[in-house]
């Protein structure tokens, strides 16, 4: 965090530290409604102070509490106040450039130099603002024209020629010691793991960037980098931003959205290619059209000369002049006949708010290639509950036997087709690839026939030895890997990495890193796995209650079933018929009381399918169906929406056969527990059956637990067990968070396993649920509590 001579006062507080009333605090945070809820004000205050103090923070605000607006208003208020601090001269605009060593220069010389730099930056800022004003006027004129003359104009499409065999033949490859293009030198060092699309972007624009570096425009800093999981979540963010002062002001915040070609490409031929052959094929086709001659070059890609630079600047000015979502940026690209995919990237330097999907932020090579400087900026990651798993999957590869078989088959066919046309090095490496795939195939066959038991983890050298090679052949693998990347004949292979090492560059560069989500518990994971080795005072956490009144929630940890059988659903107990019968009896009774929708979460598909089979045989499923129509989450993702629609229909229009609505059996960690909102009647009761502990014998989990034990060897503390518990409870909390989606919603939560009352488990539930849950409840008492709760809501 840079030093300042003026610390920003938190909005809503007087100079003496006294808190203003809620309406004043709301207004000072530029909240778009007269008065924010107290929990929103608390969240905005905590976020603002974390940014000002340069913290790493984890912020939990349940869904329905207006989290997105709070995130935007607090971060943008800080950005605006920080700009004012710069203008007042209280903070140097570029600390690195204006910091001088004691070289004997007189103070007046240093001051003169600083003033000169400030004037240059102010002049550039004013020129940019003037360009944006002109762009806003142009956009307003276009809107008036569209209102006057309805319907967009269409450009003639270029015909796409079918590819010939020559397009698939490898170009001559000079090998490790042969001549290489300048872009390849960079790719082989810092950017060894770039995706083909990003590598090519370097390749096409590097010459342009080098030639224009002498007149490169200064970058707007600090920025807010706002990342989320999906493009739809980012689109919702922009929609909320447009409601605020920052989106509606005469000079709105300069916002740009980064996305994939799949969402931003406007070339019909490339889009068609992608729809036929997938995203990777779409990326490859784009690369070809970037490299092609004048006749084949993409018509929307600006040239690399001054005319092309002016075209990109024109797109940037129009993109930043108003707040646009991605669809609007795509339409802007069509209007200006400029690629929005590259136009958006060109706009980042002058943007104040950059929205992007996770992968562009988390991958170091993507950040470097896109020249995303996080220095002194704010990194805000929303929906961050699964950030650790996302980082893990980003830097991990799973290679299956069927993939090896398919790759070998493709290599064999390629060699058969092009054997007579391949030259020297290419032929050598293709044959090497063939040998390696055959060795991997044999390794898999051997592993499959080995006795059952935990598989050992192997180093690269150990794996090579088992494949029939030796450690000194690792260098040959490096050469093969580079050949694969540079010839683009196959996708790269990623490597497993520690999460803290992968995330540490972001934490080191940014002024503040803020992780936000509706369900962030257990919060300790983020500190231990993403901030390893960092001082504890750099970490701050915040968790607020729910926006709904306490009497809108009832919860119970049920110890035993209707017949008194203890409820403890371990892996072995799922095979016990008596316990499954007890569970069926309990659900039938609950289903008779709970109105409309009831969602029951099982730890796994295996446990759900085992219970379903038993209840079909005993008739319990039929008895349950007399109260509520019964649905079950399918394994096929394509069928989930169909089942969900049937479930919703059964609730809204109950039948005489099932007068109490519907019940939905779902699986923790599957689609229904992550991306679906069960608001209002869709989930008047959420039931958790058992605890979804991950497979303890999983080799990957065993390695993660061992790593955590070594990284946190404190006496009396088992970090491996902590990880195991946290993985389980994060999945539980995500499932429970599907219900209660707004301030007027209400629901009951039943935890059917006596282990939930253990302190180490109970303490990991979200605070707003934990506060309402009664422990050690007998079945009869849970029925009475449910009946009383729903009578009060009717």
UniProtKB/TrEMBL annotation:
EC number: 5.6.2.3
Ligase in keyword set: no
GO cellular component terms, semicolon-separated: nucleus
Residues covered by region (Disordered): 1-24, 87-108, 139-166
PROSITE patterns: HELICASE_ATP_BIND_2
InterPro entries: ATP-dep_Helicase_C, DinG/Rad3-like, Helic_SF1/SF2_ATP-bd_DinG/Rad3, Helicase-like_DEXD_c2, P-loop_NTPase, RAD3-like_helicase_DEAD, Rad3/Chl1-like
Gene3D superfamilies, per database record: P-loop containing nucleotide triphosphate hydrolases
The Helicase ATP-binding domain, residue ranges: 26-439
SUPFAM superfamilies, A to Z: P-loop containing nucleoside triphosphate hydrolases
Domain of life of the native organism: Eukaryota
GO biological process, one term: establishment of sister chromatid cohesion
Keywords: ATP-binding, Cell cycle, Helicase, Hydrolase, Iron, Iron-sulfur, Isomerase, Metal-binding, Nucleotide-binding, Nucleus
PANTHER family (alphabetical): ATP-DEPENDENT DNA HELICASE DDX11-RELATED, DNA REPAIR DEAD HELICASE RAD3/XP-D SUBFAMILY MEMBER
Function comment: ATP-dependent DNA helicase important for chromosome transmission and normal cell cycle progression in G(2)/M. May have a role in changing DNA topology to allow the loading of proteins involved in maintaining sister chromatid cohesion in the vicinity of the centromeres. Has a specific role in chromosome segregation during meiosis II.
Protein name: ATP-dependent DNA helicase CHL1
Organism whose genome encodes this protein: Malassezia nana
Protein encoded by which gene: CHL1
